[in-house]
Amino acid sequence: MSTQHKVAIVTGASRGIGAAIAQRLARDGFTVVLNFAGRAADAEQLVGKIEAAGGRAITAQADVSDPAAVARMFDAAEAAFGGVDVVVNNAGIMKLAPMAESDDALFDSQVAINLKGTFNTLRQAARRLRDGGRIINLSTSVVGLKLETYGVYAATKAAVETMTAILSKELRGRSITVNAVAPGPTGTDLFLNGKSDEAVARLAKMNPLERLGTPDDIASTVAFLAGPDGGWINGQVLRANGGMV
Predict the structure, then answer these.
(1) Helix 16-27 × helix 215-226 angle, to 10°
(2) What is the pLDDT of residues 216-227, one digit of tens each?
(3) CATH number assigned to the domain covering 7-240
């Protein structure tokens, strides 16, 4: 799949891993639709960076937990560029607590965004993605590690991995691949928030490469799946974690 004239939607693209993915896809030649929920200034600033580097991008506000908002996001992409070829489901939240101490708000918010939000986007992508396209979901390597306090978060991502494999089969005949990338500990605000320096250092040492991942590490993995060299990978979960699990 040549990236020339291809259009990619990246959800949760205003910062962190999503911003790195958007910038990498733009460098690779994709026109990028940067989705954000509430950080409009960050998203607009990122569009400016992409355009200054010679790329093409627009913003599209949508809370992915709202099915109507997700449909409007696809409408905006189609109105601006004629169609969509790649969808990267990156939007997500992480709230950690032992299950005995997890309240309904912790559970409901993560299910709404991580699981229902991904489903909302997958449903639109399945209906509207151009043939030959790519869908890339973001999971987590904690699905394999099964660390304490990550129970609800990891459960939402395990469900995303299951939907990934099933949708790859449901799109038979359209040459659309559906995969997931499962980062390990990655140096973003989402990961670092609330963790002590000692905890971060311990997690960084858990993989044989003995460092945290970077947003660019994850963006490179996504770019492989979205680009011409990733076309034979389908229905898979790539654990981008330095060998942690």
Answers:
(1) 50
(2) 999 999 999 999
(3) 3.40.50.720
